[in-house]
Amino acid sequence: MTSSHLSRLDADLIIGSRGSALALWQANWVKAQLEATVPDRRVAIEIIKTTGDKILDAPLSKIGGKGLFTKEIEEALLAGSIDLAVHSLKDLPTVLPDGLGLGAITRREDVRDALVARSGIRSLAELPHAAIVGTSSLRRQAQLRLRRPDVEIKDLRGNVDTRLRKLREGQYDAIILAAAGITRLGLADQITEYLSAEFMLPAVGQGALAIEIRENDTITGEAVGALNHQETRLACEAERAFLAALGGGCQVPIAATATVDGDSLRLCGLVASVEGRSVVQGEQVGSAVDAVHLGQNLAQTLLMMGARELLNEETTNH
C-alpha cells in the first residue's frame, strides 16, 4: 500500500512503516492492537522506503547508521501524511527530530542475539576454525572477536529472509540475528543457539518496538498510550540514556541491556574497539524511576574507565 492509495477518507490513523516482512509484521501487530483498543478508529498502513532500504551494498557504519531507516518515515510524520511510525527501537536514534516523541514502547520480545548455523552446527562453540560468520553489526563483531578470534567475519545486509537465504546458499557458515525478529516472523525453529546477554550484550532497545508520534497530537497519543509497557519503557530509557551520554553512533561498538525487577533497575553496558581487543564494561543498579540518570551515570563511569579513548579512536579512524 502506498500513499497514492490512502487518504483521510480511508483511515483515521495511518501507520508509517518500512516494507520488509519484519517491519510489516510489526506494523500489522500495532494495527491489530489499535483496532482492539480503539475499535471506532479505522487504521491503515503506508509503506515508506527509506535510504537504508535502498543502499544494500555497504556497511551501515560507513553510510550513516541508524537514521537511514527512519528519516523518510519521520519526514512523513512531520508532514502529517502519517499519524504514527512503528520502528524497531534499536534502529531509532536517541535524538528525535523536533516535534516528535515516543508515544509508546511495547512489551519487549526476547532481548538476545541468536546464532543460525548451517546444518550440523548447533552452537558457536561448534563452529570450525576460520568459519565464516555473517553480521553487519559492529557490536556483534567486536564481541564475537572477543569470544572467537579465529572466525572470519563478513558483512551481512538485507532483511531477515535475505540473510537466511545467503546462509542456505553457503555464503556463510553461520549468521547472527536478533532473536526477536526471527521469532516474530515465525522462524524460531531456524535458531541453533540463543546467545545469552552475558555472552553477547544486546543492542540498546533490542527486542522492543517504538511508536513515534507528533508531540502535539494528543488524539493519537491517547490511542497508542494503551500499548505502552512501562517496565520495558524504563529499561529502554536507561539504555538509550546510556548511549546518548556516550555520544556514540554506529561507528563504535556499544551495547547495553537493562532489566527491571519491581522498583529496581539493573543496567549493563559495554564499549569496545571494533577488533574486540579492548572492552570497557560495567553495570549500575538503582531505582527504576531513575532510569535516565542510571544510564547517564553508567556512561560517565565507563568514560572514566577508558571508553572515551575507544570512542575517540574509532571516531578518528572513521
Explained architecture:
Helix 9 (230-246) packs parallel to helix 10 (291-317). This protein is an alpha/beta fold. A hairpin with a 2-residue loop joins strand 11 and strand 12. The chain is globular. The chain has helices at 21-37, 51-54, 60-63, 71-79, 138-147, 160-168, 179-184, 218-225, 230-246, 291-317, and strands at 13-17, 43-47, 84-88, 100-105, 113-117, 132-134, 152-154, 174-178, 193-195, 209-214, 254-261, 264-272, 279-287. It is 35% helix and 23% strand. It has a five-stranded mixed beta sheet, with helices on both faces. A five-stranded mixed beta sheet has the order 7-6-8-5-9.
Features:
single chain, 318 residues, alpha/beta, five-stranded mixed beta sheet, 13 strands, 35% helix, 23% strand, disordered N terminus
Brief characterization of the structure:
The chain is an alpha/beta fold and 318 residues long.
The geometry reads as globular
Contiguous low-pLDDT stretches (5 residues minimum) are 1-5
SSE topology string: EHEHHHEEEEHEHEHEEHHEEEH
Could you tell me the mean pLDDT? Answer: 91
**Overall helicity:** 25-40%
Strand order of the largest sheet: 2-1-3-10-4
Structural class: alpha/beta
Distance between the termini: 38 Å
Number of strands: 13
Largest sheet: 5 strands, mixed
How many H/I helices?
A: 10
Radius of gyration: 19 Å
Proportion of residues in extended strands: 15-25%
